[in-house]
Amino acid sequence: MHVIAPSILSANFAKLGEEIVNVIAAGADWIHFDVMDNHYVPNLTIGPLVCDAIRPLTQAPIDVHLMVKPVDRLVPDFAKAGANIITFHPEASEHIDRTLSLIREHGCQAGLVFNPATPLDYMDYVLDKLDVVLLMSVNPGFGGQKFIPSTLDKLRAARARLDAHQRDSGHRIRLEVDGGVKIDNIAEIARAGADAFVAGSAVFGAGRDDDAHRYDTVIAALREQLAPFVNPR
Ligand code: DX5
Ligand code: ZN
């Protein structure tokens, strides 16, 4: 199945609980939770306290995207706060293998995030420790940026590596994409091999005039674009 993961970075933070309930009711699969520290990336967002506060509102997986340095200190806190998936940037951890193990030891799925210019090689020796590979299609730090087209080639390259790994080991790793995903480009992103799609401004931007029903319309439109692609699992 294709996963649609709205990023709450573009939600209305004054009524975050409502936004989460509404976006899940509208058909979202995961809640994408962007953690920024004004150090690894030039912006500051939310932490484990907020994850803990929203956890009772939904059964949907919470997909925590850590844009923080260092990483390890926050892993147990997010696991305790109910995160299901924790991804981090390899440049932000001194010991990538150790951080991946730490995430799994705390009962969460683990993933690596690749910035637009970060080579995929970081995944080579840790494939058995990965549940998710997340390719950034914008430079991390802000919502509402434009999709970087070279991500499509990178997605194809990542897809090939992950398919080869699945053939050898039987272990399937999700391929997620984050940044600038919209109704008009999600089909080509899926064609390039992604099977999980973060969409912030595309989803929450649509409800800005307080009409939460628009989330249904956008999510349905995103899914309609994905319909021609065979189930990648
Ligand atoms: C960017 C964040 C993204 C962001 C995506 O650093 O990691 O998750 O919220 O927002 P859009 O979909 O608006 O590009
Ligand atoms: Zn993100």
Layout of secondary structure:
Layout: E1 3-6, H1 16-25, E2 31-36, H2 48-54, E3 62-67, H3 75-80, E4 85-88, H4 96-105, E5 109-114, E6 132-136, H5 151-169, E7 174-178, H6 186-191, E8 196-199, H7 201-204, H8 213-226
Parallel strand pairs: 1-8, 2-3, 3-4, 4-5, 5-6, 6-7, 7-8
This protein binds D-xylitol-5-phosphate and zinc ion.
The site of D-xylitol-5-phosphate has 21 residues, from strand 2, strand 8 and helix 7.
Short characterization:
The chain is α/β, with parallel strands linked by helices and 233 residues long. The chain has helices at 16-25, 48-54, 75-80, 96-105, 151-169, 186-191, 201-204, 213-226; strands spanning 3-6, 31-36, 62-67, 85-88, 109-114, 132-136, 174-178, 196-199. Helices cover 33% and strands 17% of the residues.
The overall average pLDDT, rounded, is 96
Shape: globular
Distance between the termini: 7 Å
The sequence of SSEs as H and E is: EHEHEHEHEEHEHEHH
CATH architecture: Alpha-Beta Barrel
Uncertain runs are: none
Fold-level CATH name = TIM Barrel
The computed structural class is alpha/beta
Q: What kind of assembly state do the chains in view correspond to? A: single chain
Q: What ligand molecules are bound, each kind once?
A: D-xylitol-5-phosphate, zinc ion
Helicity range: 25-40%
Strand share of the residues? Answer: 15-25%
CATH superfamily: Aldolase class I
How are strands sequenced across the largest beta sheet? 1-8-7-6-5-4-3-2
